[in-house]
Amino acid sequence: MTAPIPSPNIWHWPDVYEVENRAQDADGAVFAVLRRVADWAGRDVLDLGCGAGFHLPVFAARARSVVGVEPHPPLVDRARQRTAGHDAVTVLAGSAERIPLPADSVDLVHARTAYFFGAGCGPGITESMRVLRPGGVLVVVDLDATVGPYGEWMRADLPHYDPAGVESFFAAQGFELSRVRTRWEFDSREALRAVLGIEFSGKIAQRAYDQTPGLALEVGYRIHTRRAPVGLLY
């Protein structure tokens, strides 16, 4: 098993990433789509690459059970502290390529901006499909670099990143695609600057800050979904 690739943001600046999580998707657009494509009410959820567990209580409010899996030990500890009062939530150390759950044990695998970035993530897809029950859904939520202004800054910082190629990869793996436009809303310009500073290189972060006149910015997401088959396939 290969070692997990360190996250360039939350592993190094978890407190700033907490600010980012609070700012993201201020209107709940992503969760609205998730409820439509894979409603988890009364079901068992796996949040893969859960980080400090920010989304675990959101799922726990409606799910039967929630498991967070995270490879970075300090974040595992944070996620456990965050969910200490939620009896239905369990946080485990593990990775996308080796999920510490039995086969056919969950109804939804949710992965948001973690591991599943296109070619090379095949082992994680296979492992996620293993733990899904028939009819369950793997949902991969990632930033849409075709949507400005955030996507323009991403492409400037990552000139070799190919959004069309990533989308083609997921399509070839049998995923359906939904696009969502969201609004990030910050409490202060200082919070905005700090978050941009952990997401982009210095020059691009300064450009992004200068091009954001207030406290909000538009950010696009791609939501890739793949459903586990029901019954026998011939």
Automatic annotation (TrEMBL):
Keywords, alphabetical: Methyltransferase, Transferase
GO BP: methylation
Keyword Transcription: no
Entry's EC annotation: 2.1.1.-
Methyltransferase type domain boundaries: 46-140
GO molecular function: methyltransferase activity
CDD domains in UniProt: AdoMet_MTases
Coiled-coil boundaries: none
Top EC class for this record: transferase
Domain of life of the native organism: Bacteria
InterPro entries from the UniProt entry: Methyltransf_11, Methyltransf_Superfamily, SAM-dependent_MTases_sf
Protein name per its UniProtKB record: Class I SAM-dependent methyltransferase
Organism whose genome encodes this protein: Rhodococcus daqingensis
